[in-house]
Amino acid sequence: MTTKEARLSSEDLTHKVSRWQRYLYDAERALNQGMRRAEQAGLDRNVRFPDYQRELFSRLYNPKTSALETPAEGSEWASKLHAVAQDMPEFKVLQERCKGDEVWAGMGTSSLAASVVSKMQPQKSKHNPEELRRRVEGLKKMSEQGVNVSKKLQQAEQVLEQAQKEAEAMAQGLDPVQLRQAVRQGCEQAQQEIGEAEGQIESFSYGSSPGTPVAKGNVAQKRELANQIARSSKLKKIAKLAGRLRRVAAEKQRSKVSDSRSEVSDIEQGDSIDRLLPSELMDLLNGDGGEREMVFYARFLDRQCLQYKLSGKEKVGRGPIVLCCDESGSMEGDNECWAKAVSLALLDIAQRQRRSWSFIHFDSRVSRRDFVKAGAVDSKALMECMAHFTGGGTCFQSPLDEAVRTIKEDGAMRKADVVFITDGCCAVAPEWVERFVEAKRALGFTVYAVLVDMQGQSMGAVEQFADHVYHMEDMLEGRGGKFEDVVFSL
Predict the structure, then answer these.
(1) Which pTM does this prediction carry?
(2) SS3 of 260, please?
(3) pLDDT in tens, 346-373
(4) Which residue segments constitute the domains of the chain, with CATH numbers given?
């Protein structure tokens, strides 16, 4: 069975689509499989469904896309589809979200078009009424110039009349209640898909300021990230976990900054009861419901009361955050995804604190090292880092030696942090432990070890080199030392 190729007309159907929006639609359609699938399904309903879908894309990308004063012949069904969506708040909200963004407009188009197609009956005739009308007009002009085309003209007029009746029947057969339901479902599906894509892209994207994720920006990069994530179930899972962990890390960092503000540095206006000047409190405490107390409440609600201003200094010049991630065969699957999601949350912290971040992949050896300077995240390289996996044996000494080299190379060596994640046991040589402990003392870094799926088992060599040891099961179930409270507060 062969698939009929969708053919887009050069003529608009019911709305004016600019040349630029036609170009964007073609580019997005070439990359968006959902748009092509919806087109193919729509061709069985109406030969001009691809043109309707292009107009739908244009209306999402540019909500000001205007309707034609004279719609194309036989386009009543399309006008009805557009009119139903136009009056629905769900569609207007989706338009606002997709406005000026061809990637999101493409996602919205594929979801909406696929939903609408399900409420349309297949078209009996595959003729394009607009083309038939032009054929009739052309034959009439030839007849006026003395060419004998009466028989062809009669046949063409009959075919056009039949096509017009079918188009009218298709429009009349569209149930407004079912159409509204289809538009609503399509909008909900589109919002969900766009939301998921935004979250996934955000997990691998950073803005111009440290620690600021972005969902918009370079469209080509966004499309590339979205497509790459869509092709990898592992990257999807990492992105989902990372999104949650990054929110936890961000909250810990906000609390840390807030707690650091403990010194009175000035007087400011505000509404913090615990920081109000005694003179302000006197108006409240001595008030009896009279004018002074009313004035206090007015100033309090407007945040104009005098209060102490607290400030503090954040420590600067800290060394890198270094991840040593076990990629032995037993880590494959959920354990690997969780470990790499933690690493992305720590990358967010590193960017906020203008610290470099390093990711050391290891099994029986160090197989790769990724290094990110503050404010210089390459999203494509980051996804390649997260996708990398070897699946060999386990050796602890090599990655930790690499961590020491990384800290020395960074330059800002004071207060570096090493997070070591593993699910295996491995012996380490006593003389190596002695050298490593001396390196920790000399360089002033801390090692946080996380044991994955090892609840109740011996910590083995890990306790010989780690300053803090956590079990993943305790963290996931809220038991024990609260890994996120410590590590996400670095």
Answers:
(1) 0.62
(2) helix
(3) 888 888 888 889 999 999 999 999 998 8
(4) 1-203 (no CATH), 264-311 (no CATH), 321-487 (3.40.50.410)
